[in-house]
Amino acid sequence: MNRRRSHLSTAGATVLEALIDQPEPCTVAALSAQIGQHPNTIREHLDKLSSGGLVVRTQAAAQGRGRPAWLYSAAREVGSDQGAREYAALACVLAAHIGQTSAQPSADAIEAGRVWGRELVRQANFSKGQAATTLALSAVATRRTVVTVLEGLGFAPSTDARVCVVKLHRCPLLEAAHRNPQVVCSVHLGLVRGALDELGADPERTERTALQPFSEPGACRLDMLPRSATTQ
Fold first, then answer.
1. What DSSP character marks residue 16?
2. Residue extents of the structural domains in the chain
3. pLDDT of 69-126, one tens digit each?
4. What DSSP letter does each residue of 184-206 carry, written as one string?
5. Is there a shared CATH topology between the 2-78 domain and the 82-223 domain?
6. Residue 71, beta-bridge partner list
7. Are 190 and 109 in contact, with CB atoms under 8 Å apart?
8. What angle separates helix 181-198 from helix 139-152, to the nearest 10 degrees?
9. CA 15, CA 50: separation in Å to the nearest integer?
10. How many CB atoms lie within 10 A of CB 144?
11. What is the CATH number of domain 82-223?
12. Whole-prediction pTM
């Protein structure tokens, strides 16, 4: 399997990597938004990957008029850890449940993500309580710690020197985020805010932290430091 992957072009490998950690099959539209390439180009790579046995193509269930969309997933033998995929699949189900049952899905999703972000920081021993026993984190160090948390979740973040703007080059819940950004992306925003809460960041700045889904070529943009705030 590794030998088959070694012959991939850089663009083909990028498409495959976008699929590997996904808990559910993805549409061409979702992959195009994530990678920043034209859908026709994505389709060409997917056809080659399917022919090589690296990607599996299935058809979505029919919904109304029109031909059902094709869905793509990495072949099982090239996928990520099964436990991680099952965990992400559960997150997709919970996000869909919030979207269907909540009167305020975005607000509820942010709050759910906030709880998650606090817990992730506690588990990693990055919390403000721990920092108080050593040295308090600077504002830049706090933001950098949040980026470390995002990296561990598979977002493949890149950032500027002062961690004001973070670009998230991967989404662990790509198809769900493309299908229901109001919920999934709000969970991710809440995660960042919860992590900042736990690290003792300035509450006003934390509330102005913003996430712009699929706003950059091949990435989502996370504004960690509000533009109106003074730099630190």
1. H
2. 2-78, 82-223
3. 889 988 877 765 555 555 566 677 777 788 888 899 999 999 999 999 999 898 887 6
4. HHHHHHHHHHHHHHHTT--HHHH
5. no
6. 58
7. yes
8. 130
9. 12
10. 16
11. 3.30.1380
12. 0.72
